[in-house]
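dumping this here before i forget
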Amino acid sequence: MGGAVRDKLLGLPVHERDWLVVGASAQALLDLGFREVGRDFPVFLHPRTGEEYALARRERKTGTGYRGFAVDASATVTLEQDLARRDLTINAIAETLDGEIIDPCSGRADLDARILRHVSPAFREDPVRLLRVARFAARLSPWKFTVAADTQALMRDIAAGGELAALVPERVWREMVLALDTPRPSIFFTTLTDAQALDGIFPELASLSEDNARWQMTLAALDRSAGMQNTAPVSFACLGYALGEGSVTSFCNRLRAPRVFRDNALMVAAHLAELQAVSDASTAFALLEHLDALRRPKRLTSFLAAAGSWAPDLAVKGQPLQQALDAARQVGSEDFRSAGLSGERLADALRDARRGAVAETLPPSPFPKGKGYEGT
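structure:
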C-alpha cells in the first residue's frame, strides 16, 4: 500500500510493507491473532511477520486539527474509498498480492510527471498534510518533484485558515526530523515558505529568514549535512547555531525536542565560533574541555560534523582536534593515584598532563587559517 508501492514504482528499495484489509472487522483480525496498535485508527500487527495491517477506512471532519475526524472502519468501506482519503495521489496507489496495480487517483501518472498533487479538496482538512507535502518534496528532490499549483493553493488555505494552531508539537517534530534526514532538507523549509506557513509552524525560523543572507547560509548548511551519519541531529545543530543559544532553547522547548538534539544544538550554538578561533594547543585544549569531549568523545564528532556543514573551511580543523583528543584521553589517572594524589590535586595533575599530551601531539601551527564565515 501507499509508500511501499510508490517507492517500488520509483525503483527505490522497499524496507517495509503496509497492508490494507477490506471487508473485515477488528474482531476478525483479533481472532486471527493480530495485535491492535493504532490509537487513532484501526491498525494491527501480524502475529508472525510484525507487518502493519490497517482496516480500510473513511473519515469525516468533525473538529480542528489532524485528530478532528470521525472514522468509519466498517466492513462496508471499499478500497477506493480508503484511497480517496489519502493525502497525495502518489500515496494512493495499491498493489494486490498478485501484483495488480490499483490506481483510482492517477498517482502513477503523477509519479511519471514528478508532481506532488492532492487527492481531493479534503486535503485542506488536515494541517499535517502541509508538513507531509513539504517532507515529500525534500525526500523526492533527486527526482525533481514539484508541488502542483492547485495543491500549493490548498496549502496556503490551510496556513491562512487557522488550522496550523491545532498542530501538536510531537507531530511537528516528527515531520521535521524526517525531513532533516532527506537528500535536501532545505526544500522542506522553502516549501513551507512558499505555502506561507513557515511563520505559523516555525516562527523562530521565520524570524531568521528575514535576514536573507543568513537564511540562505542556513539552508545550504542543512543540505551539506545530508548523508552524514546521524544526519538529523547534525542538521538540527546547524539550525541551532543559526538561531543562537537563546532562540534555540525556546525552539527546543516549544517542540519538545529530545535531549540528544537539544544538547547537540546548544553545544554548536555555544562553541562554533570558538572553533574558528582555535590556533594552537592551548586554545584546542580549552575547546575540548568546553565541549566536555574528554569525558564524552562522541560530542567532538557531532560538533565537527555540524561545523563542517555550516562552514566547510572549518572542517580542516577536525583532524588535528581529533588527534589531540585521542592523545589526551590516553592519559589516565592511575599513575597519579599511585603517587598518592587525590581530590583537587589529582584533578589538576591529570588536567596538566592531558594539556601536555595535546601540546606534544599538535605540530606548530596545526590549524590553517580559515577563510572566515558569517556566524557570530
